[in-house]
């Protein structure tokens, strides 16, 4: 399955929307997008995972790597709207305590994106 990644930035915030499956084959595409995005130095990155149907350990490692690099730059990386299967992976691995996980994309980002 193809992975679609779209990023919108506004005032130091970035919203990354992911659609598809994050696995060994699609993770490099996501990694490349995070590398590009983090060069811009956003203070806050929110990953909208509402369109992610599956995420394996390779995908989780990409997210952890992005989290580490974002924190090194003094920023924050958050996960929003994970589907039940992805939320379960976060819980089973304990990553739900590593990432800030929102039930939905924070409204202030939606408002910023609409302006």
Number of domains: 1
Query: How far apart, in Å, are the first and last alpha carbons?
Result: 33 Å
Strand content: 25-35%
Largest sheet: 5 strands, mixed
Please list the strands of the largest sheet in the order they lie side by side: 1-2-3-4-5
What is the CATH class? Alpha Beta
**Computed structural class:** alpha/beta
CATH superfamily: STAS domain
Written account of the structure:
With 115 residues, this protein is α/β, with parallel strands linked by helices. The chain has a single domain, classed as STAS domain (Transcription Regulator spoIIAA, 2-Layer Sandwich). It is built from 4 helices and 5 strands, in the order E-E-H-E-H-E-H-E-H. The protein has helices spanning 27-39, 57-72, 84-93, 107-114; strands at 4-10, 13-22, 44-55, 76-80, 100-102. It has a 5-stranded mixed β-sheet, with helices on both faces. The chain is globular. The model has no long low-confidence stretch (mean pLDDT 93).
What is the structure about, briefly put?
The chain is an alpha/beta fold and 115 residues long. The protein has four helices and five strands. A five-stranded mixed β-sheet has the order 1-2-3-4-5, sandwiched between helices.
Descriptors:
single chain, 115 residues, alpha/beta, Transcription Regulator spoIIAA, five-stranded mixed beta sheet, 41% helix, 32% strand, globular
Protein topology:
Elements lengths: L3 E7 L2 E10 L4 H13 L4 E12 L1 H16 L3 E5 L3 H10 L6 E3 L4 H8 L1
Parallel strand pairs: 2-3, 3-4, 4-5
Antiparallel strand pairs: 1-2
Helix pairs in contact: 1-2
């Amino acid at each position: 399955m193809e992975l679609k990644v779209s990023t919108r930035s506004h005032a130091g915030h970035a919203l990354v929307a992911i659609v598809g499956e994050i696995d060994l084959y699609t993770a490099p595409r996501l990694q490349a997008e995070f590398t590009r995005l983090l060069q811009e130095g956003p203070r806050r990155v929110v990953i909208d995972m509402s369109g992610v149907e599956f995420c394996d350990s390779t995908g989780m490692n990409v997210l952890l790597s992005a989290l580490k690099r974002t924190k090194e730059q003094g920023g924050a990386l958050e996960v929003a709207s994970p589907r039940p299967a992805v939320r379960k992976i976060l819980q089973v691995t304990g990553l739900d305590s590593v990432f800030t996980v929102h039930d939905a994309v924070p409204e202030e980002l939606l408002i910023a994106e609409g302006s």
